[in-house]
Design a protein that fits this description.
By secondary structure, this protein is α+β, with helices and mostly antiparallel strands. Helix content is 17%, strand content 37%. It contains six helices and 20 strands. The strands form four sheets. The chain has a six-stranded antiparallel β-barrel with strand order 1-2-3-6-5-4. 37% of the residues are buried. It comes from Streptomyces lichenis. Keywords: Hydrolase, Protease, Signal. Pfam families: PDZ_2, Trypsin_2.
Length: 362
Amino acid sequence: MTALRTLVTVSAGVCAAVLVGGCSLVAPPAPRPQAPGPGDRVVATARAAAPAAPRRAAQLEEDYRTVIREVLPSVVQIDAREGLGSGVVFDAKGNIVTNAHVVGDEKSFRVTVATGDEPLPARLVSSYPEQDLAVIRLERPPAGLKPARFGDSSTVEVGQIVLAMGSPLGLAGSVTQGIVSATDRTVSESRSGGGTGATLGNMVQTSAAINPGNSGGALVNLSGEIVGIPTLAAADPSVGSAAPGIGFAIPVSTVRNIAGQIVRDGRVTDSGRAALDVTGRTVLDEEYQPAGVAVVEAARGGAAADAGMRAGDIITKVDSEPITTMTSLLEALAGKQPGDRVAVAYTRGGRAATARVTLGEM
């Protein structure tokens, strides 16, 4: 994860009225009373409304404090051998949801919860790298452990104020603020730095700062509901560092679905993610540029094989989306559902063809 910081410059227009009088020390004659004009009414209204702004600011500040008091006790710090991350208490039984890249290949962890200073032992229940989610479970859940309230992704809108809570750089109980900048983003993680390399759909984009250690924590609305799990920050390829103010969180609907299955069944049994059921690799053209995905294997009885595709085919398009790399293929499928029918354009022996594929499930 890479630190993000948002700097917003706001220009405020200030209107000042200047009254110019004579230089005489003698008081001028009193002016005749006049009926208030439109300008006077505007000034009076503005003056009367002015005290409302501080009241609104004070209310917003109190809303922040209320949400922090309510939610922060449900956010934990996870200490793995390879580093620190965050997690959210999923239920009173000690299940904690976090990112798969936080737990990595490890099975045991030390967790610091809000109800005590001593780290508590926890073990991995299951990890699902394809969606970068995992659940760990406290071996001895403490009294007073407070599960978070998980919201509804359908209510998340651009412009909503959100708070990111977690342990950035090991600073437990830290809070940053921003807004929902966009929804339904599709992003791909790097495999470097412990990333899963997953392609994630329906992500919530936020301007709230997401720093190393925030991964697996909470993205919260002002109703005190979890609306996402902060997962990664955007990188600016032109400079090779973080793109300020661009972070991404896994939407709460996905979190509830995947974590719920892991808690109930010990593993993910229904991913809800579409698949072609192929093993593929990126191929290059004569200029060494990515030019498609070669099918290495089409699983028997899988979506692609049932549509007549086979090993050696080179996929170049899914519906209207050009396919040049494995990442672009995964991104094209991220917005689809199992059972959707798509047109897959491919070449076989230099000849172009199109297959109508009913997508399977990852």
